[in-house]
Design a protein that fits this description.
The complex is a heterodimer of chains A (459) and B (284).
Chain A: H1 2-17, H2 19-33, H3 35-38, H4 46-51, H5 54-63, H6 72-101, H7 109-114, E1 117-122, H8 127-141, E2 146-150, E3 153-160, H9 167-188, E4 190-197, E5 201-207, E6 212-228, E7 234-245, E8 248-249, E9 256-259, E10 264-266, E11 269-278, E12 281-288, E13 295-300, E14 304-306, E15 312-319, E16 333-339, E17 346-351, H10 355-364, E18 369-376, E19 380-388, H11 392-411, E20 415-422, E21 425-432, H12 436-458
Antiparallel strand pairs in A: 1-21, 2-3, 3-20, 4-5, 4-19, 5-6, 6-7, 7-8, 7-9, 10-11, 11-19, 12-13, 12-18, 14-15, 15-16, 16-17, 20-21
Chain B: H1 3-27, H2 30-60, H3 71-93, H4 99-116, H5 132-166, H6 168-172, H7 182-215, H8 223-241, H9 250-273
Helix pairs in contact in B: 1-2, 1-4, 2-3, 3-4, 3-5, 5-7, 5-9, 7-8, 8-9
Classes of the chains: A alpha+beta (459), B mainly alpha (284).
Chain lengths: 459, 284
């Protein structure tokens, strides 16, 4: 029973330690990640949903394809990869650790036989003298050796960068650190959006899921400016912001400049320039069909106005000049949606330059009043992306570890050299865990130099 | 002299270099191989001058920026990095015939840029106005170029390996005798990816840092980001495959070729076929 259980545990352990699982997971992740680059992520646009059948849409929704990188099966794949690399590391680390901490100091026949590169030469003289010379030579040209004596035979062992063997595990650890940073960010951080009109301030923001978050302080938009190149392409979006605590400006955060690529951070919350728009009032003139009982009406961009007859009116869109859309017309126009106290909503167009068209709109809509468009009050708002991510520094630490680890893993190797000094002969052996070609050149140089060194002194 | 003329000259030099490598492969005359690498180096110098000149021209127009901001400039820079990485590998390992399989990539890029893409110098939109543009584009493209070289070497590997499987006589004589042994090709493939993988990693990280400055999020699963990760997964698989039994040799070569195909999709396919944050790379 227990042996069967052990057998199963061992099988499971070996499964999670296997490199074949690593390959399977990496390649599968590469393939399934493609889905989310073809199927739009987040709230799918209407045009896309019109292309696919309702059945397909339902299927995609159930599979989580519209948010696949956060779906349970994708997260499971990433978790399996993490488990796999932890198991692989745990399995191999003790062995690597032993190589680093307890190197074989004695070059016996069996070890000599397994050497990738070796050389021996005849010498005359006192082994103790030669031992000192060889030790001094290795220290100068390679690394300081450990000297061991076994039955009157001297063994020297020297190594370089033994810790470079740990780099692979360091890279594995960096992946876990990056994941940890991402988890910290999603647990303790937020991402949202806020629009602030010039002169206004905001103390809360809206997340992508529509939740409102109190900042604990407020941000005022002093000014927003848009600069264009002579070609008409945008050159700079600039917000001047002031952070307010209890309504008072915070020192160093008065009239701070925020442009794309240069955000503003206060108390761990960062504001990024993302968009802009007009948040001012739109002005209309209300009159009855005879042109009497005139009333001026202003409609805020993000709200509605009440007409004398009790209807509410809000703006759908407004253009400063009609000519690009209507050949015979020019000047400003606004499209309005009007909700009468009873009955269905009506959509009308109010022109700036054509009172007769406004009258026609009124008749068509069976209204007993006419709406004329008077123009807008330019009051720009800045659109700010707002983020707080306490995990981001953990992610950067992980990235740094990964780059350092990959560099060491690829470009440094653990090189070892053994020298055995007996009466009448010196034997050298060496190996490297990587880049054997470059090492054997170095080894040949060492062996030749050592031979010269010992023979020269002899004379 | 304008940068545009210099880029045209570069294209013709790369064409010449490619033909010299072909002649070298067929005729086995050492001098044509040397001429091929000399031409590649000369082309690289002319192209470097052209890139610097274009940089200066953008300043003369009043909105100076590094010439790495649109599709034309990136394709030209891609060609430059391919030749640079190839010359470095030739300098280190001296297997000249590889030029016949690498220079076509550089030539293709230059020819496409010069004939098919809009070479106008445009001012930078606000999102691109950052020093990270330089670090991000340079690391990514050096990585892509190393993968291009690895792909060329892998194609050589597959040709050589299949002819060796057919029979001993094919391998000893003819065209393929110019190829390095399969063991060497396998090793060179690995070495090229060893250059490319850290650079791609740096490219993804610099992109993440930049995205965090510009948009407040270091990773948003945008198609470009996702594809760069797909490429990273493939080459990570390649690196692990090398220490797995049964995955060395042919399968590794195929992984390298698939990796480069994914790289090209990440670079061009995403911009031209999919939509996302990197839209400025696709404009004509």
């Amino acid at each position: 029973m227990t042996s069967k259980q052990n057998d199963f545990t061992l099988k499971l352990w070996n499964f999670f330690c296997s490199l074949k699982l690593t390959l399977f997971l990496l390649i599968s992740l590469a393939v399934i990640s493609i889905i989310g680059t073809v199927v739009p992520q987040g709230i799918p646009p209407v045009e896309y949903l019109e292309q696919i059948s309702p059945v397909k849409q339902k299927l995609y929704e159930n599979l989580g394809l519209f948010d696949m990188y956060h779906s349970w099966w994708f997260v499971l794949m990433l978790s399996l990869l993490t488990l796999n690399l932890i198991c692989c590391s745990i399995k191999r680390l003790p062995y690597i650790w032993k190589i680093i901490r307890n190197p074989v100091l004695v070059l016996d026949r069996a070890l000599e036989h397994s050497m990738a590169v070796k050389k021996s030469f005849k010498v005359y003289g006192n082994p103790a003298d030669m031992r000192d010379k060889a030790a001094a030579f290795l220290k100068a040209e390679f690394a300081e050796p450990v000297v061991t004596e076994v039955d009157g035979v001297w063994h020297l062992f020297a190594q370089k960068h033994p810790w470079s063997r740990l780099s692979v595990y360091f890279v594995h650890l960096s992946v876990i650190v990056i994941f940890a940073g991402a988890i910290i960010g999603s647990l303790f951080g937020f991402k949202g959006f806020v629009n602030i009109s010039e002169g206004d301030s905001a103390s809360k923001i809206t997340t992508q899921s529509g939740k409102e978050i109190e900042l604990g302080f407020s941000v005022r938009c002093d000014q927003f400016t848009l600069t264009n190149y002579p070609t008409g392409a945008p050159k700079e979006f600039k917000s001047i912001l002031t952070v307010l605590e209890n309504g008072k400006p915070v020192q160093d955060y008065l009239h701070a400049r925020v442009i794309v690529n240069e955000p503003l951070t206060y108390k761990g919350v960062t504001f990024y320039q993302a968009s802009y728009g007009n948040g001012g009032n739109y002005f209309f003139r209300y009159a009855d069909l005879e042109g009497k009982n005139i009333k001026e009406i202003s409609v805020p961009a993000d709200s509605e106005a009440t007409l004398p007859d009790g209807s509410t009116m809000h703006l759908l869109e407004a253009v400063p000049d009609l000519s690009p859309y209507e050949k015979e017309l020019s000047g400003p126009a606004a499209r309005l949606e009007i909700h009468p106290p009873s009955g269905p909503a009506k959509i009308i167009i109010a022109y700036g330059n054509y009172p007769e068209l406004n009258l026609r709109e009124a008749r068509d809509a069976k209204n007993d009043y006419v709406i004329h468009y008077r123009g807008i009050e330019e009051k720009l708002y800045t659109g700010l992306q707002v983020a707080k991510d306490p995990g981001v520094w953990v992610v950067w630490a992980g990235c740094l570890m990964m780059v350092a680890g990959i560099y060491v893993a690829f470009f440094m190797s653990h090189r070892r050299v053994w020298v055995r000094i007996e009466k009448g002969s010196v034997t050298m052996g060496g190996n490297s865990n990587k880049n054997q070609g470059a090492f054997s050149q170095k080894f040949d140089f060492l062996a030749e130099s050592l031979e010269k060194e010992i023979s020269r002194e002899k004379k | 002299m304008t940068s545009s003329i210099l880029f045209n000259i570069t294209t013709f030099i790369y064409l010449g270099s490619m033909f010299l490598f072909f002649i070298f492969m067929f005729s086995k005359t050492k001098i044509s191989g040397s001429a091929g690498i000399a031409a590649a180096a000369a082309g690289l110098i002319v192209q470097s001058a052209a890139i610097i000149l274009r940089w200066k021209e953008s300043y003369d127009m009043g909105f100076g920026h590094a010439p790495l901001s649109n599709l034309y400039e990136s394709v030209v820079f891609f060609a430059w990095t391919i030749v640079l990485i190839y010359i470095y590998l030739d300098f280190r390992y001296r297997y000249r015939v590889i030029g016949a399989f690498v220079m076509p990539f550089a030539l293709l890029a230059m020819a496409w840029a010069q004939l098919g893409l809009n070479d106008g110098i445009q001012p930078l939109v606000p999102a691109l106005q950052s020093d990270w543009l330089l670090y991000h584009v340079i690391t990514c493209f050096l990585g892509y170029a190393a993968f291009a070289v690895a792909c060329g070497i892998s194609i050589m590997y597959l040709i050589k390996a299949s002819s060796e499987a057919e029979g001993e006589k094919g391998a000893g004589s003819g065209l393929l005798s110019m190829f390095p042994p399969v063991r060497v090709l396998d090793d060179l493939n690995y070495r090229a990816i060893m250059i490319g993988f850290p650079l791609l990693t740096l490219g993804i990280i610099t992109g993440a840092v930049w995205a965090n400055y510009a948009w407040g999020t270091y990773w948003s699963w945008d198609p470009k980001e996702t594809w760069s990760l797909i490429v990273w997964f493939i080459y990570a698989a390649f690196l692990h495959a090398r220490i797995t039994k049964g995955w060395v040799g042919k399968r590794a070569a195929w992984l390298s070729i698939i990796g480069f195909a994914a790289t090209i999709f990440c670079y061009l396919g995403v911009n031209l076929l999919l939509s996302g944050l990197h839209s400025y790379g696709g404009g004509k």
